[in-house]
Amino acid sequence: MRISEVAQAASVPLTAVKYYQREGLLPPGEKSAPNQTTYDTRHVERVRLVRALLETGGLSVAVTKQVLAVLDADTAPLAEVFAAAQYAMTSSRAQDNGASQESRDRIEGRVSAAGWCSTSDNPGLEAAARALDGLRTIGFDAPDAYLDAYLNAAATAARADVAALHGRQERDAIAELMVVGTVLGDPLFAGLRRLAQQDAMHDLFPVSDHASPAGADIEGAQS
Amino acid sequence: MRISEVAQAASVPLTAVKYYQREGLLPPGEKSAPNQTTYDTRHVERVRLVRALLETGGLSVAVTKQVLAVLDADTAPLAEVFAAAQYAMTSSRAQDNGASQESRDRIEGRVSAAGWCSTSDNPGLEAAARALDGLRTIGFDAPDAYLDAYLNAAATAARADVAALHGRQERDAIAELMVVGTVLGDPLFAGLRRLAQQDAMHDLFPVSDHASPAGADIEGAQS
Asked: Which of A4, B1, B84, B180 has its CA 20 to 30 A from that of A69?
């Protein structure tokens, strides 16, 4: 098929497909004539995958390229694929190493109290510590109960991530889900947290019940 | 103090502070002489807040500006602040309305089964549905158990978010935590999920125990 048909089959605008191509995110097509290149269903699948990583997952082109390279290296051990997935954080800024030692210690302390087995080079440590630093800029020094709730949430999601891998048999299918599941689990959770917040807010600040004691303090502070 | 002292006090590079200023993210200083403008601790706090939203939270300049405007409108009811926080999704692409109806229905179905009270204009619905669409591009049609694990994780985090608000008395302090907590809870969770995955992987693919039945299928598929 032609490049325009690839775009149509993947439901992705042709300009986006050409952009992926220019950025080296798609494998080359086959020269079928001096002025013609043909593509196949593997290109359609790759276009969909690139779109999911870039647009929905928010990865940069550079990180997407690294992730695809690991996926394409059929001989890469799954441990290496897993490491690539781990480093493909939605926010590439998380790898700046700018978090305070205090916040890193806080996270490591709770992770250790939870009995998790993890290493200090795990990029998640830096990302979580930076978020704690950000919360501290507004004078919110997250208490243990708050951090532990997030740890529990993370453990619940991670168990589901790993359980999903067990549903696949082929190495390539497992590798793909490892990477895409790790990347897209972040926006999936972020979206569901917005929905859960609306529900939790409804319980605590009932719109129709101003006499509720649960919301009294906060409604009193409302201007 | 001078602008360079604001940068130093906030531990943010001067070039970044000047950029925030040029983008209209900082309130103006006070003209103390024809060629001199002075700033105070409120500017230091604002620089830290802007950095947390932009760099750690990954918000765009435009969304950060909207969020600050709501925070600065002292008379805005907390419900409006909450709405602004909800719409300040880490990925602004989440507001494209590009998710499939099928995925939106899937999410609404699980949310309704969980008994959550939420409305269909909640931006989280679109974000979560897009993530599901992305997972489907690699042939992973998330089973109910997977989605429900993420719903549970989101509910756990959202309850902690709301509980944290109850620890604050002043309207401004509540509003600030509503916004910053909503924005930074995403990277906090994302980081902790990387740590939790390492732990969950360790249990299921034990490096030192190749005979483990739990990891057998997947290790067998490894090349």
From this structure: A4
Nearest C-alpha neighbor of A184 from the set B138, B179, B155, B12: B138
ipTM: 0.86
Q: Are strands A36-38 and A30-33 parallel, antiparallel or unpaired?
A: antiparallel
Domains and CATH numbers, chain B: 1-56 (1.10.1660.10), 75-205 (no CATH)
Q: What is the pLDDT of residues A88-125, one digit of tens each?
A: 876 555 455 689 999 999 999 999 999 999 888 899 99
**Residues B63-121: tens digit of each pLDDT:** 899 889 888 887 788 888 888 888 887 655 545 568 999 999 999 999 999 999 988 88
Q: Inspect the interface and report whether the beta carbons of A150 and B137 lie closer than 8 Å.
A: no
Verify whether the Cβ–Cβ distance B137 to A162 is below 8 Å.
Answer: no
Beta carbon pairs, A and B, within 8 Å? 393
* Cα angle B45-B50-B54, degrees, rounded to a multiple of 5: 155
Nearest chain A alpha carbon to B75? A223
DSSP strand pairing (B30-33 vs B36-38): antiparallel
Three-state DSSP at B141 gives coil
The C-alpha atoms of residue B21 and residue B51 are separated, in whole angstroms, by 12
How long is chain A?
A: 223
